[in-house]
Structure formats: structure tokens, C-alpha cells
Please model this.
Amino acid sequence: MPFPEIAAPSRVAVPAKGSSDPGLRIFIVAPYGSDARLTSGILEEAGLRTVVCESIQQICARAPEGCGACLLSEEALDKASLHTLQEWLGEQPSWSDMPVVLVTRAGEISSLQRHRLSAIMSMGNVTLLERPFRASTLVSTVEMALRSRERQYQVRELLEQTARDAEALREAARRKDEFLAMLAHELRNPLSSVSHAVMLQREAPDGADHAWAVDVISRQTEQLTRLVDDLLDVSRITQGKIKLLVEVVDAAKILHSGCQTVAGLIESRSHTLHTDFPQGQLWLKADATRVEQIVVNLLTNAAKYTPAHGHIWLAARLDEGDVVITVRDSGVGIPKERISDMFDMFTQGDRTAARSEGGLGIGLPVVKTLCELHGGMVTAESAGVGLGSTFTVRLPATTAPEAAAVVKKEPVVARRDTRVLVVDDNVDSAHGLERLLRLRGYTVEVVHDGPAALDRAVASCPAVVLLDIGLPGMDGYEVARLMRKQAGCTDTFLVALTGYGQEEDRARARASGFNEHFVKPVDFNALIQLLHDKIQAVADGG
Model:
């Protein structure tokens, strides 16, 4: 029975949301007369997109282009077409349950028709629509089918997103494993050098080997410190906690300091470092320490990824209101397909010839973040493997500061009666610091836990307490709070020496009564200068 039994059409329904989406088209198969054309007209007038097909086979062929629902007359389902439809619906992906609206005749049906209807209904998402029906009924039935299809698309998106998330987690796990393996490698290398130097000191404590061993231990300790600093920066980056101490600085001084920092590495590789930057002409409003970190990271990368006897160029110039710093090398280069992800966290260059150099894959991401925090940017270029690399940093320039008078400070020598209490549960660290302080003229006492620190501070009233935070019995914060309540310790100069270096750690130290906060390993020269300044202030009546 043909579709023309549809009652007179009226303007119905608001166009289905998203009806312009090819995935929401209605495929129509009605083989007799003008049934398909009339049905399509009603649906198109309601704002729905339709595709008239000649057969079920044509639907199956065109459905991959996007299909929201199928509208079929029962006359279109002969035995072969029914089999084709069953096969097609059975091959749907897990998220898909294609809506099928089947227009059937009213009244008595034959056993053959009943068998076919039963087979069709078993296919799943099938709605029967008996003729005659109103146009509004047709439109609402099809719109309901499309809403079902839209929900399926949402499930598909959810499944695809879940798959992407799972792949991202697998990739993150892979990178984490690589990172941990490389971290062990990066830690073992300097520790091995330190171990050899210590053994040499024991075997031959005098002579030229002594100076060499001291130099090795110093250099490798600096490398370990930079490694830990980079790891801490990663933590700060992920938490958005990096803060800049901004001042007007001469870029040339920063570049010169960066060159000095990596001089040992460059010399050990027999590289030649070429520099080209004017003095006193390139000014930045920046955190000098962080800009130097940018330069050092880039120079270190260049040195590591350049075979021995290579060349590295460091240059800086003013360009359109920016200070432009370039680090170029004659090294192994970067594959073009890897340049885009060079600044991703935990990504390593894998630059074949230098693969053994490893690296944690955190230096360049730190560089990128620091550049962006300064309102600048960094880019990488390479003509390919074996053709070297160029990293370009652009930072906003500023005007030169007004010249200020330089006041020369004479160093202050500690008085023998300046008492210092060192508190650290790491015995080697505590006694090492004790020996260094004694060499500078201080009277030093050492304890290794919180309660003992409080007892000795109350008993001896030291001028300075160098206090670790992670102590047994009572942590350093509590020791400081209790010390400040003791009459003889209210003016004691409290310095926190700790491995905790986040801003909240510093704030907690200040709140507990500490005057200063140093992160381990302590820069001993900076500590001594601080103590000298404190002694001078007391001597001057401050």
C-alpha cells in the first residue's frame, strides 16, 4: 500500500537541532510511485535532510557518508533486501544502533508478512508506523529516531575520547618509565665521578690528584644541584607556581655568567664557544637567575648534542623591541619531524649520535615556560640530522637604568665568640658544615634532633641557629616556634636549611619565626655572606 495515504501535510515541528549534519540525514526507500518524493517533501519542509534511495543496497553503500535514520516501506523488503539489511545492521560498531522506521499497512497481515516483520523487529532499534498517518506523526517519529541517533553519536564521542585518554595515559606511562630510567642514569654519572674522586683522595691524599679530585667533586655537585633544581622547576611548572624576581638587568652580564657556568662542560668536550653580544646595550626587565637558566640550558644542550671538537655560537642583538638571543651549534641536528615536540615535557631529542647523552627531557620545556613567563618565546630550527641546531629566544627589551653609586662593602671576619648551633639529622652534612664554619672563625655546636636543638638553644643562647626542617622528635618549624617563646632566643638569627624549596615552604618558615630560608645543598658562600651581614648589622647597632 503506497505512502500517499499520508494525511494532508501541515506545517509541523521545528527543524531538528543539527539537521544540517550529514550524520543526521534520513535515508528513504519506498519503491512505488511517488511515495518517496512525497515523504521526502514532508520531512524537508520540517527542516530535516533526506536522501531518497532506490534500494536497501544503495542505503548500505551510502550510509558511511552519514546516516541518521532509515525510513523504509515494507514493500522495499523482499527476501534479498531483508538479508542485506540484517547483515548491514549486524556489522554496526558497538556504539551504533541505527534507527529504522518501517511504514506498514494496517489490518490483517499474512504469515509471510508476519515472519518478515518479526525478523525486522529482532534487528533492534525499529519503529513501526502504520498507514494512514498524519504528516505531524511522521515528522515526530523521525525526529525521535534522530534524537536516538544523536545520543549514539554522543556515546561514540565518549568512547573515542576514552580511547584517546587511554592512549595518552599509556604514552604518559611510557614517558614516565623512560624518564625514571634516564633520571637514574643522570644521577649515577655524577655520583660515579664523585665516588672515584673520593677513592683517589683516600689512596693519594696529597699531590696533583688532590686538586683534581676536589675540582671533580665540586663540578659534579653543581651538576647534581642543577638536576634537582630542574626537577623542582618541573613541579612548579605543573602547579603554576614559578614566580619571577624582576629587575632591570644587563643581558650581556647574564650571558657572560651563563658561559662561565658551562665552561667546564664545553672544555671537557673540546668545543669552541664563539660569543657575540654588546656590553651595556641590551637591557631586560627580567629575573636574571631565570634568564641565565634559559641560557645555561640551551648551551648545555648544544654541548651535549655536538660531537667533540665542535663549535657553539652564542649571540644577542636588539630587534624590534626585543632582545634576541641565539644559541647555534654544529651538532647532530634535529629530525624535522621532531622539532614540533622538542618543547614537550619529558621529550628527548633522540639525536642518534648523541643518544647516549640522555638528558631528562625537561630542560627545553623549562626554557619554554620561563620565556613565556617573561612575555617572550623560544623557537628551534634545524636543517636536519647532522646539520646542527639553532635555538632563538626573544624577550622584551627595556631601557637602561639610571647609573647608581656603587658602595664597596668590606668583608667582615667572624668573631670567635660568635656562637652557631647547627641542627641536622644527617650527621655527615651537619659535621661538614661545622668544619666549614670553624674555618671561618665561628664557634660551632652540633645536635641532630628537634628536642636536643631546643635544649641547646635555651642553654647556650647562640647568635645563629642553622636549623634543618625534617628532624626526628620535633620538626624544625615547631623548634623555631618554641625557641621564639624563650626569653634568651627572641633575638637569635634563625636560618632554615631544608630540601623544601616551594614558596609555601618559605612562607611557613617565616610564619614559624625563621629569619632566612636556604634550600639544600646550601650555597656556603651565600650563607657566610648572610652571617657576615648579620654580624655587621649587630656591630653597627642594627
